[in-house]
């Protein structure tokens, strides 16, 4: 088996839309084009930034930042509330473009997906050409831009898609993976956040080459079960298939805060936004659930979940939000700071046929 972990090399494309929500707003409202746009709410609200246009990002505005902080950074920015129907419609059109080339598609959210084009429907052969063709179709037909990463597995393709944003296309072939992973700064590894990156750097682990010097046992001792993940991916090993058909067992949304915090106002505002997202997805797919689960990831990457079940199924954002607040309060965080919150609804109502929903895990990230 090769260092990439596969005897037969696959052709994997990761497509990531560029500043998706903000780009849809700029497309639909010409007066927003070329200007800093912040999607999430008004600057005097308790809202959280869902997406910022690239013009807004130049001021330091990032996703999960409070709208009030974003306003401080750029008072001239245009602040708008999310229009999830518009984003869902655009996502549907993007998915239709994907299906011209392959049916092996694993959506990660409205604006992100993996495609396995090892055997493409049009017989193009070159994954790079397919990725470029997809990007061109999205631009010409939908007036939006996407960035693409192409490689032999999902992990490397995902990293590649982020390398030349916006409107980028990056190919990392088998012969380049070893050198690429060794030179990659640890903070660029998918799954390594600020806290873990700081721990690694304190151990003189600054790049993939440094990380590769540790044995699997040493990584497990230092980073728990994530150590096994780090051991494999630094060697370019990722055998996960692109999963085109998965039974829908839960509908969830989660978001990582721009800064670790235990500020109730910020956490509550983020939970409210996530609750609306989950409710919209449930409504779209005609699903109701009986169990609400709150996911909390702390600054040190420890993670807990808290759940509560209802007798009757529901999908209302207000109920989801109120329950999430109760679960957060009962978790009694104290001085612990939070880096990520997520809400999932499961145990769907039996009268709603699962097959009416997409055959995918319905996950959504801002």
TrEMBL record:
Domain of life of the native organism: Bacteria
Record bears the keyword Transferase: yes
Cofactor binding annotation: Binds 2 magnesium ions per subunit.
Signal peptide range in chain numbering: none
One of the protein's GO biological processes: DNA repair
Known EC number: 2.7.7.7
Active site: 112
Pfam families assigned: IMS (PF00817), IMS_C (PF11799), IMS_HHH_1 (PF21999)
Sites annotated Substrate discrimination: 21
Catalysed conversion reaction: DNA(n) + a 2'-deoxyribonucleoside 5'-triphosphate = DNA(n+1) + diphosphate
Family matches, as InterPro entries: DNA/RNA_pol_sf, DNA_pol_Y-fam_lit_finger_sf, DNA_pol_Y-fam_little_finger, DNA_polymerase-Y, DNApol_IV, IMS_HHH_1, Rev_trsase/Diguanyl_cyclase, UmuC
Binding residues annotated for Mg(2+), in chain numbering: 16, 111
Coiled-coil regions listed: none
Any one GO MF annotation of this record: DNA-directed DNA polymerase activity
Keywords noted in UniProt: Cytoplasm, DNA damage, DNA repair, DNA replication, DNA-binding, DNA-directed DNA polymerase, Magnesium, Metal-binding, Mutator protein, Nucleotidyltransferase, Transferase
Stated family: Belongs to the DNA polymerase type-Y family.
Function: Poorly processive, error-prone DNA polymerase involved in untargeted mutagenesis. Copies undamaged DNA at stalled replication forks, which arise in vivo from mismatched or misaligned primer ends. These misaligned primers can be extended by PolIV. Exhibits no 3'-5' exonuclease (proofreading) activity. May be involved in translesional synthesis, in conjunction with the beta clamp from PolIII.
Subunit and interaction comment: Monomer.
PANTHER family in alphabetical order: DNA POLYMERASE KAPPA, DNA REPAIR POLYMERASE UMUC / TRANSFERASE FAMILY MEMBER
Name of the protein in its database record: DNA polymerase IV
Organism in which the protein naturally occurs: Pedobacter jejuensis
Organism lineage: Bacteria, Pseudomonadati, Bacteroidota, Sphingobacteriia, Sphingobacteriales
Gene designation per UniProt: dinB
């Amino acid at each position: 088996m090769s260092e990439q972990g596969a005897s037969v090399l696959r052709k994997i494309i990761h497509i990531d839309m560029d500043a998706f929500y903000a780009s849809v707003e700029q497309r639909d409202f010409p007066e927003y084009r070329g200007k800093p746009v912040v999607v999430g709410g008004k600057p005097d609200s308790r809202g959280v930034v869902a997406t910022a246009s690239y013009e807004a990002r130049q001021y330091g505005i990032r996703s999960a930042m409070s709208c009030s902080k974003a306003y401080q950074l750029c008072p001239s920015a245009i602040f708008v509330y999310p229009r999830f129907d518009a984003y869902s419609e655009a996502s549907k059109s993007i998915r239709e473009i994907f299906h011209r080339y392959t049916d092996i598609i694993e959506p990660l959210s409205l604006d992100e997906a993996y495609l396995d084009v090892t055997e493409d429907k049009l017989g193009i052969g070159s994954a790079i050409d397919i990725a470029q063709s997809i990007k061109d179709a999205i631009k010409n037909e939908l007036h939006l831009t996407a960035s693409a990463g192409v490689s032999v597995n999902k992990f490397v393709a995902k990293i590649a898609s982020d390398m030349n944003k916006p409107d980028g296309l990056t190919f990392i072939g088998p012969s380049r993976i070893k050198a690429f992973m060794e030179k990659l700064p640890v903070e660029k590894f998918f799954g390594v956040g600020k806290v873990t990156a700081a721990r690694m750097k304190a151990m003189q682990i600054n790049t993939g080459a440094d990380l590769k010097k540790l044995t699997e046992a040493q990584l497990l001792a230092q980073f728990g079960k994530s150590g096994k993940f780090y051991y494999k991916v630094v060697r370019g090993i990722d055998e996960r298939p692109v999963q085109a058909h998965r039974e829908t067992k839960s509908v969830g949304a989660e978001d990582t805060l721009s800064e670790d915090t235990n500020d109730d106002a910020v956490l509550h505002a983020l939970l409210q936004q996530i609750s609306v997202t989950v409710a919209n997805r449930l409504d779209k797919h005609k699903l109701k659930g009986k169990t609400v689960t709150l996911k909390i990831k702390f600054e040190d990457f420890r993670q807990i979940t808290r759940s509560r079940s209802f007798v009757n199924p529901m999908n209302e954002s207000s109920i989801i939000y109120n329950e999430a607040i109760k679960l957060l309060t009962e978790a009694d965080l104290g001085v612990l700071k939070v880096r990520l919150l997520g809400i999932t609804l499961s145990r769907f109502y039996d009268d709603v046929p699962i097959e009416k929903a997409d055959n995918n895990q319905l996950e959504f990230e801002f």
